[in-house]
Give the backbone structure.
Amino acid sequence: MSEPGSPATSVAESTPPADEATTAQPPASEEAELAAVAAAPEVLASSLSEYLRAWRQRIRTGDSGALPIVVGLIVVGAFFQIERSEFLTAPNIVNLLVQAAIFVLFGAAEVFALVLSEIDLSIGYVAGVAAFTIAELMTTPVNFPWWLAILCGFAVAATIGTLQGTLITRLRLPSFVVTLGGLLLWEGVMLELATIDKAAVGGVLSINPASPVYELVNANMSPAVGWAVLAAALGLFAALTLTRAARRRAKGLSAPPLSITLLTIAITAIAGVALVYVCNLNRGVLITLRGVPWVVPFVAIVLLAWTVLLGRTRLGRYIYAIGANPEAARRAGVNVARVRTLGFMLCALTAGMAGLVYESRLGSISTDIDGGSLVLYAVAAAVIGGASLFGGRGKPLHALLGGVLIAAVFNGLGLMGINAAGQDIATAIVLVVAATVDSTLRRRGSAGAP
Amino acid sequence: MSTDQHTADTGEAAAAAPSPEAPAPLVALRGVTKTFGPVQALTDVDLDVPVGAVTALAGDNGAGKSVLIKTVAGLWQPDAGEIRWEGRPVRLRSPRQAEDLGITTIYQDLALCDNLDIVQNMFLGREILRHGLLDEVVMEQDARRTLQELSVTSVLSIRQPVLSLSGGQRQSVAVAKALMTNSKLVIMDEPTAALGVSQTRTVLELIRRLAGRGVAVIVISHNINDVFSVADRIAILRLGRLVASGPLAEFDPQTVVEYMTLGSSARATAGRTQPPAAVQEAHGE
């Protein structure tokens, strides 16, 4: 035990595997079976078949990842396609994407709060305030250029988030209460903004159709630009994925097998090509209408930025750490109050972006915006996609999947001529089913805690 | 921390040639006293903690073990007496200050984040960056090296979330995390309290290796068997007073229990300690 010369070998033999059940040294495979619990497949496997086995193992043990929601999307898509053959046509798919953009951004906003094990109920009306700010600054008498108006709107949203975050962290108030107050307060502020502004007739401010704010949703990239952007994005993605795997392998670390890396790139490429192809089909009736709406790359860039921020920066790492164990983060030297405040700031900022897309889609912003429902759809999108209400788990990607599913349900039921009541009921069912599937899979596995 | 300190055989050395006082102790407590209102939590405690050795802190509930380690960890300041670090008197006003000196405390709750993997936990609060982003490759290599140095071989992948680890493995991660900070003194509060037999053995071996790397270790334990299988030295508290301390070879389990419960031992084998006669009155515990 205390030979200084050869610690590695001698001690390794005397170290029993840390599972009590095993008395003798178990065969390697059995040990692998025991420890494979909830480990990501890409860190365990060195070949394709091993990878698939590890993946199955992970699903069996409860960490199902995005699988249920992907299955759900396919089921919902197939159902509506059978019911209404126009569901999977170019005009409707593009329409669905635009509908989804709002839910996705709201969901991505809520992900920041949920991962921190908090909630933000105010984001619906924060989006409303941001949208009114942008619309009012663009019109008379201010007449800011569109980009400055957008920056100001985002700044207002971020400031609101910082303010709420500061109240929550410094005064140790529950986020539920503070943001519930925010839900009421920012609705009031929004109504007041509309009242003060003489241009807002009946609480409605329209957006100049020539401005990029309007064009974000209502104008398209030309087909050639769409393909070029896709090619550049795919090339970058492939290069980054391959070099990352190569760097890990060069440093002697486990990396996913090359076949898996290539498969990932191929699936991404197929999805991207299909998306751009469908968007580039002519979907106009009387005029030619084709191309990817600008809102698609906008949402993609926001999601990418937030994914990098959460997954690859210190701030993101601390947000996850605080969501699971704030005390551990505090002891590790993390400024917990600051990180949580920044989380609420990012949440509100993303809500401001959702507000921009909202007013762009309608071509106007009105005090009729239902911030109360929007925030519930935000939570629903994040949770359906796989974020945890109990903190520590959730990604911007989850908001994408959940937002698209909610939009698909809305869109499909709309095609079927089912009214708002039916849409709400269907969304509720999808939410509860998603939560049930998630919790059942999780309870079955030893991954245990929510 | 890369140099291999040849002090790995302190366990046997202490038994064979009891010369623990020869090098200056890393931490020395002199007359440390702490009261909470009417409660005398620590009374005039003198304790030396040498490097490269495991010092067990034994005592019954309410003996003052926790207060003592929290004083060393900077959570509480002593009312009287002083703490010397590498020979110099220091005032530890905050846990941060103690950490900056190289004092790491591993509490029973381990302070790990379940949703993060082993590497992420080990580097929490001191992540390595590359182009402004987290450098997972370098962190994973460093974490793997440290775990190998500690011979933590039972985890399959260091990219497993901590949630999926057993109690002993979690304890190993907590120890490895302490080692990443170049700690000179690691204080462990009941490291084997919640563990089964084989996991306990693993963790005790880990503690031995930690001391073998030249780290001073203080272990709080209720379990006399654990104390005797891991410690080089022992310090026994009773009702806030240090009733006995010295190389473990001078004690046997029976003596330790007597010191813990009575404050003195009829069959004490070594006369290094002076069991104070006046300890018998309870101090409002």
The CA atoms of residues 359 and 365 of chain A lie 5 Å apart.
